[in-house]
Amino acid sequence: SVAVKSLGSSEGLKSEKYMQTTFTWTHVNYEIKGDVAVIRISDPNSKVNTLSLQMQKEMTEVMDEVMGNSAIKSVVLISSKPGCFIAGADINMIQACKSTEEVTRLSQEGQKIFEKIEKSPKPIVAAINGSCLGGGLEFAIACQYRVATKSKKTALGTPEVMLGLLPGAGGTQRLPKMIGLPNAFDMMLTGRNIRADKAKKMGLVHQLVDTLGPGLKSPEERTIEYLEEVAIDCARGIVNKKLALTKEMNMMQKIQDHVMSYSFVQNRIYSTVEKKVLKQTKGLYPAPMKIIECVKAGMEQGPDAGYLAESQNFGKLAMTPESKALVGLYHGQVACKKNRFGVPEKEVKTLAILGAGLIGAGIAQVTVEKSINTILKDITEEALNQGQHQVYKGLNDKTKKKSITSFERDSILSNLTGQLDYSGFEKADMVIEAVFEDLAIKHKVLKEVEAVIPPNCVFASNTAALAIKDIAAASKRPEKVVGMHYFSPVDKMQLLEIITTDKTSKDTTASAVALGLKQGKVVIVVGDGPGFYTTRCLAPMLAEAVRVLQEGVDPKKLDSLTTGFGFPVGAATLADELGIDVAAHMAENLGKAFGSRFGGGNLELLKTMVAKGFKGRKSGKGFYIYQSEPKPKDINPELKEIVESYKMMPNPAVSSDSDVQYRLISRFVNEAVLCLQEGILTNPVEGDIGAVFGLGFPPFLGGPFRFVDNFGADKLVEKMKTFEEVFGNQFTPCQLLLDHAKDPSRKFHN
Amino acid sequence: SMAPVVSTKSKKTLSKTGVKNIVLVDGVRTPFLQSGTTYADLMPHDLARTALQGLLNRTGIPKDAVDYIIYGTVIQEVKTSNVAREAALGAGFSDRIPAHTVTMACISSNQAMTTAVGMIAAGQCDAVVAGGVEFMSDVPIRHSRKMRKTMLSLNKAKTLGARLALLGSIRPAHLAPELPAVAEFSTEETMGHSADRLAAAFGVSRREQDEYALRSHSLAKRAQDEGLLSDVVGFKVPGKDIVSKDNGIRPSSMEQMAKLKPAFVKPHGTVTAANSSYLTDGASAVLIMSEEKALALGYKPKAYLRDFVYVSQDPKDQLLLGPSYATPKVLERSGLKLADIDVFEFHEAFAGQILSNLKAMDSDWFAKTYMGRTSKVGSPPLDKFNLWGGSLSLGHPFGATGCRLVTTVAHRLKKEGGQYGLVAACAAGGQGHAMVIEAYPQ
Predict the structure, then answer these.
(1) Reported pTM
(2) What does DSSP assign to residue A119?
(3) Which ranges carry the Thiolase N-terminal domain (chain B) (predicted)?
(4) Measuring CA to CA, which of A432, B16, B62, B320 is 20 to 30 A from A234?
């Protein structure tokens, strides 16, 4: 490739002598504007900039050249990519490392580069537009000054923790000093993105620049140019001492800083944060504790100890199975954000939804947000009213959190039409039915809908358990019928499971995937069959949970065993959230389809609960009692009597806490592997993504397939065989699992 | 007079067969004063009343010879929400003349005038008074919504206990007053902030803006000194002196202006108090008639009011670009070219806004990308542009500016010997307006 270094094009020095350079740069170039060097970064092979080896090498060379040029007094660092400053370190670069030491060295090299930046005698201004994450943020905070655009795409953050890592290029050392311990911990331990306005308030950036609208160039292009102009002024201002580098603090901040300087206050913060982390991670995630450790080392023993702790811990974390699992999920998520079925012939511009219940209204919300005309239809005014209110509330909550303005809320809501009849369906490009899970009702609405929709309209069924081919049996055009399984609450749950039958056309699938992706979902596409993939994995685990309850374990204990294994929500709470009636219905249907393998707990227990009105959270009572309090955690007192009548004697050989956990997890995992074996799943990646994002399978395990790889199929089979002896075929390992157990070199993921 | 009236124009006249000729008989205005000065203790209808009386005196029209009165205003005084009616009654017009008030931000009095044109064109009226008024020295400041709710409930509370309970529910935070928003409702952005972003988008520098503002003040000063601002009628303010001049015209120096800090985008913005229009009190009025009626009453009209358009765009990023959209559209409607126009009067909200519009109109890329046009309309030559000052210097009482622009075009056409004039203005909400005016044959 060609040298892309450009020199003083518009103003200032146009000295020929810098043309002598022998370097060939593809990722970094610079232009001299008067006495300011503007370093521009852009990875030619990617939509985003990452701190790859190549980028680091070129950056070092450019920096050396800039520092050696006495005509340059200050530097502006900016990305030429719209929407991205630097999105982080190159994950593949870390993954390619074979040992802790190798990763530690990577971290130390990064630390060194940024130390040079921090100690640069020529002030460096980071001009940030778009994502400034991970290593990108660490780069920016090593600079002397930061200017960021107010663009919605501008986000600053340290997401390393979500990959089981820590900010390994000085982040754990610089952030606490810059924004204080509480804010630094919040950023590093949650990994959340900070928007520009918040970043300014926190002291993470010094100045904000507005985004610009139409002018004599495209808004994106001109906004970057404007950012650069402001940043150049700042750089000159710093050199001329017109711009102070110390942050302006109000009295409150000064007091806070002073209080924070006491070691007992700091210790108090460490212990509070540690406790909170332990409570939330159950000790299953190593990264957060390591982050605290690094911060502490730096604050208590000085920078040398701090940076050393950071690089060493970074190396250790990168080699943990937790980090590898989380990185695997990250790659899986990226894969599931692509449409492998291509671009559909017709974009969905009008979507009609049948049923304004929780799911229907949730689908409506995520659809109107993308400016798609949405018809929400129900059969009673009461149900419709409730559904429309849910959409309004979902959006209004965003207004309260200031992520959208009230005007934007109203404008989004104008895409929604609530109605009781089929008017307007003749213009629908897709209909999603989210009516009651009953085949007869589904058939009825399918026929009604097909009578009014245009021929090219897709009919999607939102069902958790009914086979799509059974629903499609009533259709005049089964090639247009597809399953779209959303998870509740739709606006929060990331997964969408799309189910195709033998007859579903590729274009129909492409259309469903495209809509799901537009709605912001992570999409998996699975084959048809009772329970498809997700419900089919969940059902045996819930059946086991019921048996565990029958054996005398109370719901609270059951919950703590499941959350202790890493599920975000305990099994009993999950059933309450899902609805006991729904769980019973699902168990009954799948029991019929799969027979005794789906047995275990007595279905009658659930049915009795339903008969007594204990349908879970929605009815106020389930395994727990739900009052107006947001966190109700009292066990339903009437439950005891019901459980008593279905009591089973636990077998002490398979009833330790750990046994119970593995009984639950192994049935889940075995069913997942069976789905791959039977071709319900196309690949293990979608299996892992579906389990984690749809069912809360412990993220640090990376999903059922990653779990088998790491835990060992042989060990799992061994455990299952013990259980099988006691309980029978519910624990019979499937063939694919047995194959993996026999040959340890066989892995689901490379 | 500068240009001789020779037929180098695309059209000899804009008169169309089958379309009524509608004329501007005359126009007047009160002196425009910075708010909080001599008018401070008045009410909006007092200013409007003064403009109406001024129009009556100037034209000598009988008080019952007008069919209808329309006024434009932006920030409404709650007590006189139909300020047109209150002002008309107070000005001594016959109480048999209906009056209504319109609002369309900074083009409110343009809307009043074009409403009048519509009524005459439709044959419903022959003579209409249109005007505009704005009074920023006093604006309605309300109790908070919670406090208002409590106060309204208090009226309905039947028992002493209920009343006490309501009073007890008042919290200190409820007492915080609610000022009228200076921000765009849909975007929550102030106009000055948007103007600064607009200037940045078009690469308009601080220096260019200061130079333009200085030009506006200098031209206004000259026009005032030479007595060209003949639309101004003196006003004996009760308890105060007679006011006969605009008081915001203050030509400064580039050095002085450069000292000011940016007013909206801090610290690197370019829009300052000196290159923006300021809060102003004032009122204006014009008498519009069908040509036959004017002639029948013995008037010599000043100008024909011809084609006009309203446009609207994105209120966030194109808030102040109305003139760029409206100008080519109204020219096309009239069958004129930019070069046919002898007199331009554009509303100057901010120097940065004017300069951005000039650049937008001069850009083929902008015309193609955002306006769906094949080419640019062109930038109006500055030697025909706002030669007697503009809103930056004369002041900008939101509701009243439109009539000032139209009257000024008529006066300038006469003074400069031109035939066609063009008025254009931007308005909050991302709206805009333009009108073509033709000189009345001498």
Answers:
(1) 0.91
(2) T
(3) 22-292
(4) B320
* Contact partners, residue B99, CB within 8 Å, separation at least 6: B68, B69, B70, B71, B82, B84, B85, B87, B88
Say yes or no: A410 contacts chain B, CB-CB below 8 A. no
Say whether A453 sits in a helix, a strand or coil.
coil
What is the rounded radius of gyration, in angstroms, for the C-alpha atoms of chain B? 23
In the structure encoding, which two tokens stand for residue A136, read together?
């990108």
Reported residue count of chain A is 750
Tokens representing residue A449 in the block: 């809908």
Round to whole Å and give the CA distance between B420 and B7. 12
| B401 neighbors B111 (Cβ within 8 angstroms) | no
B240-263 confidence digits (pLDDT tens): 999 999 999 999 999 999 999 999
Q: Which of A207, A226, A407 sits opposite B200 (nearest CB)?
A: A226
- The SS3 assignment for B25 reads strand
Burial class (CB within 10 angstroms; exposed 0-12, middle 13-18, buried 19+) of B152: exposed
Contacts of A102 (CB under 8 A, 6+ apart): A315
Q: Compute the distance between CA of residue B400 and CA of residue B33 in angstroms, rounded to an integer.
A: 12
Q: Please state, as a whole number, how many other Cβ atoms lie within 10 Å of the Cβ of residue B145.
A: 10
Residues of chain A found within 8 Å of residue B364, distances taken between Cβ atoms: none
For residue A543, give how far its alpha carbon lies from the nearest alpha carbon of chain B (Å). Answer: 53
User: What is the spatial distance between Cα A660 and Cα A658, in angstroms, rounded to a whole number?
Assistant: 5
pLDDT in tens, A496-536: 999 999 999 999 999 999 999 999 999 999 999 989 999 99
Coil, helix or strand for A6? Answer: coil
Q: Which residue of chain A has the CA closest to B199?
A: A215
- A566 and A284 Cβ atoms separated by less than 8 Å: yes
Q: Kindly give the pairing relationship between strand B303-312 and strand B431-439.
A: antiparallel
Q: Report the C-alpha gap between B389 and B382 in whole angstroms.
A: 12
Q: Is A233 on the interface with B (CB under 8 A)?
A: yes
Task: Extract the tokens encoding B405.
Answer: 């622009």
With contact defined as beta carbons under 8 Å apart, do B132 and B112 qualify?
A: yes
Closest CA to A80 of A111, A119, A47: A47
C-alpha B256/C-alpha B265 separation (Å) is 20
**Residue A633 pLDDT > 80:** no
Phi-psi region of A424 (alpha: psi -120 to 50; beta: other; left: phi over 0): left
d(CA B225, CA B227): 5
Alpha-carbon distance of A694 to B28, in angstroms, equals 71
Place of tokens 């008042």: B170
Rounded CA-CA distance B437/B401 in Å is: 16
Q: Would you call A226 an interface residue with chain B, using a CB distance cutoff of 8 Å?
A: yes
Residues of A classed as catalytic? 497
| 3-state DSSP assignment of residue B238 | coil
Which residue pairs, CB below 8 angstroms and at least 24 apart, start in A241-246?
A243/A145, A245/A123, A245/A144, A245/A145
CA nearest to B271, candidates B199, B319, B356: B199
Contact A214 B197 (CB under 8 A): no
DSSP label at B190?
A: B
Token output for A712 = 């060992």
> What local confidence, expressed as pLDDT, does residue A264 receive?
84
Token pair listed for A531: 């329970």
Is any Cβ of chain B less than 8 angstroms from the Cβ of A264? no
- CB spacing of A209 vs B268 below 8 angstroms: yes
Cβ-contact A598, A543 below 8 angstroms: yes
Q: Which residues contact A743 (CB under 8 A, 6 or more apart)?
A: none
Element (H, E) at A439: helix A439-450
pLDDT of A9 higher than 60: no
Tokens standing for B343?
Answer: 């007199």
CA distance B355 to chain A (A): 12
Dihedrals φ, ψ of A375, to 5°? Answer: -100, 125
As a whole number of angstroms, the distance between CA A519 and CA A367 comes to 6
